[in-house]
Each structure stands twice: as C-alpha cells, then as structure tokens.
Amino acid sequence: MDRKEETLRIIDLVNDTYESEQAWHGPSVVEVLRGVSSRMAASRLTPNTHSIAELVFHITTWRIFAVRKLQGDATFDITTKEKNWKTFRTFDELEWETLQMELSLSQEELVSELEKKQTDHFLEDTVPGRDYTYYTLIHGLIQHDLYHAGQIALIKKGLSLAGFGDEDLDDLNQSSIFDDDFDAF
C-alpha cells in the first residue's frame, strides 16, 4: 500500500498557516483578520498600497487556483489584474463578510482536495499548465499566505498608529497579534 505521509504533513501546515493559534511562525491568517472591521479592511495606509480586503481577495484567489489545479484543470488561470487584485469601488460589512466566507471556503476546499489524494505520488506531478510540481505549488501557497498575513498585521499596526478611530480599534486592541512581542517589533 502506498503512503501519503507527506500529504498529511502538508495538510497540517496548511491548517496551521490558516487557523492555528499556536503556530511557531506567529499569527495565522485567521488570527490577523480577527478584529478587522469592514472600514479597516477597506482602508489603505497610503494610496499606493493594498487594503486588507484586497489582500484577502488575493489570498483567496490563489487558493482557488491551487484547488482548481489539484482538480486537474489545465485551463484555469489568473491572467488578468482583476482576477488577481480586485479593487473595491464600494465596500461594506456585507462585502467584508462575503470575502471572509470565501476565504474560509477556499480553506475547506483546499484541505478536501488534499485529503482525496490516496498517495504522495501526485506531489511530484507537474501542475497542469505550469512548469512546477504540486509539491512546489502547495508549499508556495503556504508561504504566500504567511507573507500576506504579515502584510495584514503590519497594516493593522499602521492603522492603529495612525489613530484610525477608537470604535475600530477597540476590537483590534483585543487581538492577540498586538501582544508585547509585536509591540517590540
């Protein structure tokens, strides 16, 4: 019987990156999003930076890309800026809840597709339409999520330093990412 030990380790990494409250690397994606209001999600630190909402859309888009590739879809791609980096003309609480729900669903779909794999052999297969393996794709996705989680944490910190607004910062200041270690950063 073939094994899928590496796939199970990867699933653990995907879950830790997304929602662990004790991952050694620091706050997970879910942790950094805790306490972010729709107003904060739509705000930019400067005009030429992304908002938290845009980053969440981007993270979700690449997770959907990975799911579609795991399903064997050779034609699915993210070829336009609109598919990769959505700009929100209007943004409200409903839009923010929808974005977070889509991110959560992308997590469930990603883990589900990985769990369907019977062995680790697929990890060495080339991703349809690409020149890298599934192993590289999935580990790249983990790194991608962590990179953008760090950006979100810095945006939250920047908004708090800019005096974003007491009503928005009440929930934010309760967030675990602003503990003593982060303040020393």
UniProtKB/TrEMBL annotation:
Top-level taxon in the UniProt lineage: Bacteria
Pfam families registered for this protein in UniProt: DinB_2
Location of the DinB-like domain: 43-152
Name listed for the protein in its UniProt record: Putative damage-inducible protein DinB
Organism: Rhabdobacter roseus
